[in-house]
Amino acid sequence: MADPRRRSPLAHRAPLTAEGGTLTIAERPLLGRLVLRVDADKGDAAVATVIGAGLPKAVAETALSEAATIFWLSPDEWMIVTAAEAEERLAADLGAALAGIHHQIAVVSDYYTAIEIAGARARDLLSKLTTLDMHARAFKPGEARAGIFAKANGVLFQRVADDAGGGPAFDLAVRWSMADYLWCVVAEAGHEWGLPVEHPVAGEPLFH
Amino acid sequence: MFVITCPYCGARDQTEFAYAHEAHIARPTDPESMSDADWAEFVFMRKNTKGIYAERWMHAAGCRKFFNALRNTATDEFLAVYRIGEPMPEVSAEGPATPCGEQPGSGNDAVKIMADDSGGGGR
Questions:
Q1: Which residues of B touch A153 (CB under 8 A)?
Q2: Cβ B63–A75 below 8 Å, yes or no?
Q3: What is the pLDDT of residues B1-32, one digit of tens each?
Q4: Which of A11, A204, B24, B106 could join B111 in a cystine, given CB atoms 3.0 to 4.6 angstroms apart?
Q5: In angstroms, how far apart are the furthest CA atoms of chain A?
């Protein structure tokens, strides 16, 4: 049961849509997130029994199942994204399955939020914020990469393919403390395609 | 700006990386018996080579793993990257002794002028 006092980092921001619908940004609040560290070869089978998908083994790879999505963060570190409020149960199940294998599971749901960037101009918008190669040949659907977006670190995941109706959709996972800043930077980057200007609640300048 | 190839993540922009100084510096096996001079050698003294230099980098914004790299410090060319624990690959680099190809020596203009006065020629 969700605590009614729980408030997402961008609860004060309403979704934005550009005129013409080439861009929309919205928060995907309160998703369950875990960070798992384990030896990939030893933990793979145990994770598969719980989540229904094994650990991705190389950069940008993800594993999807009904229970969760697993992002590759480093050779021995993964972010597991699941439904809101499902993460504690998943962490317990993973802990039981990995018993006897040296591992660490951290529940980081309250540490992150995700900004969804969708629409035909989503790749163009992200190209303005990051040095990652955002070309459709380089960043494919279902891939996730960590990188720098404006001045914030984040993990970018392409959830919806480019040829889907309405264009690609990306989830940009960012830390709570940087979420409002990044929201405003994303809106500023999309301003040329019709997103409205947003101002940080703390009043800090977006660019120096 | 240059592109660094992380051995785990592939080619990424320099801004994602943190520099971690000279590689292959072994920790002392017998710290109890080391003199202050030995400690200073271990803690502070670095080669600062002009040419091929083995150094550590960390992919701070990506996988956050340390790795080793061989860089030509005269040209900033990355000649090889390899994971921690892997042997240093054999590389060779031929390039200008200095990035612009000028005579090697001090960057201090006063010293260059003195060299000219003594018949060094050039500039």
A1: 61
A2: yes
A3: 689 999 999 999 999 999 999 999 999 999 99
A4: B106
A5: 55
Residue-wise pLDDT for B51-99, tens only, equals: 899 999 999 999 999 999 999 887 888 999 999 999 999 988 776 655 5
What is the percentage of chain B residues whose pLDDT exceeds 70? 76
List all residues 6 or more positions away from A167 whose beta carbon is below 8 Å from its beta carbon: A22, A118, A119, A120, A121, A122, A160
Q: Do A146 and B8 touch (CB under 8 A)?
A: no
Band (A208; pLDDT cuts 50, 70, 90): low
CATH level 2 (architecture), domain B3-92: 2-Layer Sandwich (3.30)
For the domain bounded by A16-29+112-192, which CATH number is listed?
Answer: 3.30.1360.120
The domain at A32-110 falls in which architecture? 2-Layer Sandwich (3.30)
Tell me the C-alpha distance between B49 and B76, whole Å. Answer: 12
> Using CA atoms, how far apart are residues B75 and B63, in angstroms rounded to an integer?
27
Chain B CB contacts of A75 below 8 Å: 8, 63, 65
Residue ranges of chain A assigned to CATH 3.30.1360.120 = 16-29+112-192
Mean pLDDT of chain A: 94
**Chain B residue with Cα closest to A76:** B63
- With an 8 Å Cβ cutoff, are B16 and A75 in contact? no
Mean pLDDT of A157-175: 94
Domain with CATH 3.30.2270.10 in chain B: 3-92
